[in-house]
Amino acid sequence: MNAAPRELAVIRFAGETTAVERYAQARDAVPRTASTPPWTRDVGFVERHHNGRLLLRGTFAGHYLDIDEGDLVSRRGVGKGAAAGGLIGVLAGPPGIAVGLVLGGLVGSHLATPDEVEAEPEAFVARVKEAVPPSSSAIVMIAPAARVDEMVGALGAEAARSLRRPLTDEESAAIESSLADAPTTGSDGERRR
Question: How far apart are CA 160 and CA 120, in angstroms?
Answer without folding.
Answer: 30
